[in-house]
Give the backbone structure.
Amino acid sequence: MRVAIVGGGIGGLSAALQLLKAGLDVHVYEQAPRIAEIGAGIQISPNASRLLLRLGLGSAMEAAGVRPRAVHQRRWDDGRTLQRAPLGSEIEATFGAPYYHFHRADLANLLAGALPPERLHVGHKLIDLAQKSERVVARFENGALSEADLLVGADGIHSRVRTLLFGPEKPRFTGCVAWRGLVPAERIKRLDIEIASHNWMGPDGHVVHYWVAGGRMMNVVCVVEHGAWTNESWTDKGDVGDVLARYEGWHPTVRGLIGAFPETFIWALHDRAELPRWSLGRVTLLGDACHPMLPMMAQGAAQSIEDGAALASLLKAMPDDIEGALARYEAVRKPRATKLQQASAANRARFHLHDGPEQRKRDEAMATSGDRSVANIGWLYGHDAAAV
Ligand code: FAD
């Protein structure tokens, strides 16, 4: 079975490795001239890392990743701990796979490096596709054509494949923007920040930060409520002074991190409503192409890795019934991805509460129920997407 994957992001690359391992003839087509990820971090939880471990990427992940000890939820002004849940050895022992923090480029390179070079076609921007009887023909801007039994659109939130299948529809601006910064460790020594995932919650915004690149850099993401967004670009250069002004009155650690940004970029955060379906004939979608979500569960990329695992298992089990396998893929994956889209949106409201009765209720619930405790997070981290 020949499979064409459009998009060489984390979703497309990891799907390619999983499909190859299932014995399929896979090719990835990426529009960019080389595999490149933006300068930012990414958290990979055990539900995704267990799938990457099975691909033999354990030592590469260990070399590139940082293992956080805990996830620390804190108050915006006085820094008080609202909840602290384990992410280190206890999580690995319970769920059989570690929690990692990566620089995005390290993760993308690690995945691309595991793919035989002849299977990765950069400089291939998909512009059109046609389904004829049992074949799919993809047409690229450079004039190339590719024929396959199945085409997978892993081409992100602005998915061309999705538009070709279901018609044009712009992603919606969620009302949140994120400033991101990568701070060299030597600039923030005095802050003495623990190797953990830190989430500071405050009025109309939150800040997440964690170590990446072997602890050489701190990845910082500052998310705020923003109103309208008219700029088409979603990765503009920002101004560090604007970020500091927006976080006036926040804890000195938060302000110390922002003040140490060498530069900052703005991300306008978009999502989409749940799609009625993901597949048409022998073409399907995965990752942000079909279920983009706000980052407040840190699960967008993890879910795209899970998509690839489910697809690989099903195609291996049902090689003579591709459309049946795609129907099953959608049936097992869509409810879970939708649940995470909804949980991410709910966390946005929860993280951005103004001080008052609602915030006190949240803080009390965090302190007593521990939504990230080992017992409560099993549905997410314990899931094995390949077991379909
Ligand atoms: P993309 O990464 O968008 O990749 C799509 C690829 O397709 C790109 O390489 C693109 O160039 C290519 N492409 C596009 N169009 C074409 C075309 N026509 N032809 C050929 N190629 C094409 N997720 C987590 O799991 N953990 C986190 O900690 C986390 N943090 C986040 C923080 C922020 C602030 C944000 C915004 C997101 C975060 N996410 C996180 C979500 C995660 O970044 C995305 O869900 C993930 O990158 C999606 O991967 P993808 O491969 O589906 O899409």
User: Anything to note?
Assistant: The longest strand covers residues 172-184.
